[in-house]
Amino acid sequence: MRRVRAALLFVSLIGLVPMAAAQEPPNGERSADSTRVTVEKEGTVTRVTVQSELAIEIEVPAQTTASCEAALALEYTQRGTIARVEGVIENATCAASAGDYTIAIRVRDENGEITILEFDEPWQRSDDQPVEFLTDYPIGEDVELVGVRSRRLRCVCADASGD
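The chain above was modelled as a monomer; its predicted structure follows.
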């Protein structure tokens, strides 16, 4: 976490004051305590605005994301009751990165009905090399593998600042 000091300008509209009750601020518009008073007159109405500078400290969490654009390519085969999925995740945007994705497997049973099986998978890398994987997924008995695709590929670049 980083600490950031900020000076905020607090603006408060005091309201509309009849001209007879309004008073001009002494010595122009700025006082010694960093408060600024502005008086605007419009006909019989006077608007008084008070601005005061407040120094605050905010804790900002370290940036854990950057523009991250990972791509996933895969191949698949059926091996009896198993779908073997081989793939590679590439990310040219940042080196150290991580995320997750979903493998969606479509199978057709002996009655011709299509079922989609989903498997959530994490991924991570500490360098700029592609992430390769080979995973066997159970698809059941007496089914035909129709297709495999990835869904919801998420990517987060690791914080390069070291904070």
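Confidence is low (pLDDT under 50) at residues 7-22.
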